Amino acid sequence: QPRPLHIEKAMKVADRKPPVRGVVHNVDAPCARIAECEYFTADVVNVPQSKKIVVGEESFAALLCLEGNVQAGELTLAAGECAFVPAGWGEMLLSGCGKLLVSGV
Q: What is the pTM of this model?
């Protein structure tokens, strides 16, 4: 038996503002910050060629390939594949052509 939908209640609590666009301090590729709170950040990063990210001591980086193929260090990520980069890793070269979701704390 299907459960009832509470669309009116959902619309009252939904944050329907567009995402904040900008450049994250440790990513030199164009990106869009799609979420940020006291617990995590999430950025969509376009990788048109070669870009560097720096994974500092303050947070790990979780990489999820959203589209295309992206070389992240020695790993190649296709759409739907992910990688975990531990905090303190340092500089990492991103190359290829695709889009990544980069999350951290």
A: 0.70
Outline where DSSP puts E strands in the chain: 20-22, 31-36, 41-47, 51-55, 61-72, 75-78, 82-85, 90-104
| Pick from 48, 7, 13: nearest CA to 31 | 48
Helix H or strand E encompassing 10: helix 7-13
Question: For residues 48 and 31, is the Cβ–Cβ distance under 8 A?
Answer: no
**Whole-number pLDDT of residue 25:** 47
Q: How many residues does the chain have?
A: 105
Task: State how far the Cα of 69 lies from the Cα of 78, in Å rounded to an integer.
Answer: 5
Q: Is the pLDDT of residue 20 over 70?
A: no
Q: Which two tokens stand for residue 12?
A: 């009252």
Residue 46 in tokens: 């376009």
